[in-house]
Design brief:
The chain has 9 helices and 9 strands. The chain is α/β, with parallel strands linked by helices and 254 residues long. The chain has one domain: Rossmann fold (3-Layer(aba) Sandwich), CATH 3.40.50.150. Bound molecules: S-adenosylmethionine (SAM). S-adenosylmethionine binds next to helix 4.
Amino acid sequence: MQQREAGQPLAHVLGQAEFCELALAIGPGVFVPRPRAECLVEVVVSLNPTTVLDLGCGCGALAAAVKQRLPDGEVQASDYDELACQWARRNGERYGFQVHRSNWLKSLPEAFDAIVAYLPHVPTAALACLDEDYLRAEGASSVAGGADGLDPLRAIFPDLRSPLVTLLSAEQLAGAKGVAQQFGYELEVAYADEEDRAVIFRPCGTRSILRSGPAAAQCAPPTAGSPPPASQTDPDAGPGGRRIAARHGTPRYE
Ligand SMILES: C[S@@+](CC[C@H](N)C(=O)[O-])C[C@H]1O[C@@H](n2cnc3c(N)ncnc32)[C@H](O)[C@@H]1O
């Protein structure tokens, strides 16, 4: 109770977080996996990859969930933070993935069939809107993405040799397309809800690697009376895209 009253996230107090219905070991100083990132698992699995990297893995939630969905796949995970790597290694032993310490892709020269990453992408101005307790407990470097939230992408693209699946806010799409173009990549939206966009960056001129059909339907099944798939209404939504409701205003980061 004292730890909770002092603002520690429940997952840090319990030493356990849940992601895609999996239990993950975790401790203070490490980013607590968020349900909103679960759609990334659906998108990357829909690409049918054999080798997958969870880049900026924190405790390894994405790697664990991907390995569960692709038991024959070779899943690796990396983070530059040694504490995160220690928790990820514990989870890697349990769920079957390897962990490396690396500043983005600098120490990981090989190509993967797909890279999945829930990157720090909160713009500087939006940091003040975040839950202070979480920001203190997880560390700003887990979430802060620079002025427009896209600095981690700018750091990753020069070394990128694989399709990259990541989550952005709707407001970041145009900027992210511009960054990608500078490095010869284009952006495809695989999933859309009212605030988030799960996107795939792939080399310009290569064919879409999204399988036809709903890539992310399973992580957020449409409810009765929900609007039509975003692929029918939203030029930025891919075949699996779905828009829950038109929404304007400040994006919600957490
Ligand atoms: C938003 S958290 C996501 C963690 C995990 N993927 C998840 O969903 O729970 C971003 C992660 O990126 C890591 N990170 C930040 N800068 C990095 C860098 N330069 N190289 C590698 N990882 C980095 C942080 O340590 C943090 O674990």
